[in-house]
Amino acid sequence: MKHAGPVAVLAIVVVAGCASTVLPTPSASVSAPPSAESPTGASAVAGPLEISGGELAPGTYTHSGFEPRITLEVGEGWQGVQNTSGFFDVQQDPDTPDVIAVQFGNVDGVIGADGSTVEIGSAAEAVPIIRENTNLEIIGESPSLISGLEGFTVEVENAVGRDVPVLRVPAGPLGISPERRLWVSFFDTPDGVLAVLVGGSVDRWDDTLAIAEPVLESVRIGDEAP
Predict the structure, then answer these.
(1) Residues 49-71: b if buried by 16+ CB within 10 A, e if exposed
(2) Beta-bridge partner residues of 105
(3) What does the pLDDT profile of the chain (226 residues) look like in tens digits?
(4) What is the Cα–Cα distance from 143 to 83, expressed in whole angstroms?
(5) Is residue 131 a part of any domain in this protein?
(6) 1 in a structural domain
(7) Residue 146 CB coordination number (10 Å)
(8) Rounded Cα distance, 196 and 6, in Å
(9) Which of 77, 80, 74 is nearest to 51 (CA)?
(10) Nearest by Cα to 200 from 186, 181, 178
(11) Which secondary-structure segment (H or E) carries 149?
(12) What does the alpha-carbon distance between residue 133 and residue 131 come to, in Å, rounded to a whole number?
């Protein structure tokens, strides 16, 4: 999977302090799913485990209420935190300034100039619109590849002293708080535009990427999911 850059935790409606809440990556080769004998993954027969709230045992997980189907692998230290219409995530150190989040959202629109929400019909439309949002600082842009899907990535920081919306999912706008960084990739799927995000603090961004990387590499989307 190609990682174009970092991501920040988002929050629905407004970023809840440290992580993104509904206000809601680098790349490398995608690793193979765990075998039936794997001590940390769900068995091939039983299939992935269901993501639930609270601590997650190491293994392979999915979220049955989300389309397209997503599966991912987590190691020690991850928790299921946000789960709402068209959006879910896993986090480390939730409710702290350095919370790390890997997030997935169905994109209804992207926030552009003057804070306006612009509906999009394809992943290619998202980054140019975000580029017009003067409340965000663009750190970088690049192509991305996850689970065989080619996407478009933008990495941003909050440029003002308040929570800033970045995109909208069915449950509401997703935003980024001050001192946070967000890396988001947009992909076209049969279920519409999908956003895959990684969020973390500016101060610990390198740590965020190192911890999120194995999860991102394990992601399977749609028909790629076991």
Answers:
(1) bebeeeebeebbbbbeebebbbb
(2) 87, 195
(3) 444 333 334 443 333 333 454 553 332 222 222 333 333 444 444 679 999 999 999 999 999 989 999 999 999 999 999 999 899 999 999 999 999 999 999 999 999 998 999 999 999 999 999 999 999 999 999 999 999 999 999 999 999 989 999 999 999 999 999 999 999 999 999 999 999 999 999 999 999 999 999 999 999 999 766 6
(4) 28
(5) yes
(6) no
(7) 24
(8) 11
(9) 80
(10) 181
(11) strand 149-158
(12) 6
In a domain, 2, yes or no: no
- Residue recorded with tokens 């190192």: 210
If you write DSSP's letter for every residue of 104-128 in order, what string do you get? EEE-SEEE-GGG-EE--SSGGGHHH
The answer to whether position 3 is within a domain reads: no
**CATH number where 15 lies:** 3.40.1000.10
CA-wise closest residue to 174 among 7, 8, 9, 12: 12
Number of domains in the chain: 1
Token code pair at residue 124:
């290619």
Q: Which domain holds residue 78?
A: 11-224
CA distances from 216 to 32, 34, 67, 114 (A): 12, 15, 17, 32
Which two tokens mark 108? 């209804």
